[in-house]
Amino acid sequence: MSGLRRCGVLAAAGSVLVAGCTATHDKDNDNDDGARTRPSASRSAETGRGDAPATAGSQQRLTDPARYPRTPAEGRDVVGRLIPGPALFGADVTRAVPYESRPGSWADLDEECVWQLREPPEDVLATRTRYFWLPAEKGGGKGAVRLTTTVTVHRTALDAAWEQAGMLEEALGCEEQVLRPGERLTNLFSSAFGLGEGGNVDVDDSLLENGLCHSETRGGPYPYFWQQATLGPVVLSASACGGRGRTKDEVQGLVQEPLAQLMVRAEREIGPEAGTDEERGTEPEPGTKGDS
Fold first, then answer.
1. Most confident option among 203-212, 255-264, 282-291
2. Among 56, 194, 211, 250, which is least packed by CB within 10 angstroms?
3. pLDDT at 39 over 80
4. Are 100 and 288 in contact (CB under 8 A)?
């Protein structure tokens, strides 16, 4: 594969799980309705699935395994408390149509590097994706921005780490990734930072990707940014596909600031000093809790 790579490690539950690389690609994908909002199902490890011992690792410092959800119902409750509405991304952000992913759906990258919706893997207790728009400015100003966020709860912290590892594998294995005809990403650059690497002191692992998004209906290329983080068994991600006149920094800020707030919510949910129900955040919007 062509492109510049920089290798590091993906840390999970206090142990090194897999080597990861950053890479420059010419991948094709866009970010509408399930596009690149979730990496594919985590690759099942040949050995060692399950929680690693909570010794001196990040799991012990950042989360409390006793607070992890253990059943699908508990996972749905956690997703319902963590998944944000449009207000988290800004006062002007609105719901897209559709607003939520189909219950029980999981985006998976197939061998042809095309994203497909499938059943979630067995290690996923609950998952949900929401879609938003930052509308175009009036009077012919900056164009609209497409935003997405996904919250997934796995059975174990190591399952969540394997999801991260799968994403890195996909980034290196598919130079082009297609959501559906007419929607794609190009010129992607990916990087991964375990706890203590690259300024990451808040989550077990963080993945970032930026590049250009293209759409036959929306135009482009526009700046694109995606970030995903794991905290114990919880995986949080957000992405943005820019619009006319939107800068790279502007698009990146629309993702990073809300995701940081989601990380705080997750820490309050499963951290060693988890807050009360009131401190963990507002109740989910009517009709959304527990339906993923």
1. 255-264
2. 56
3. no
4. yes
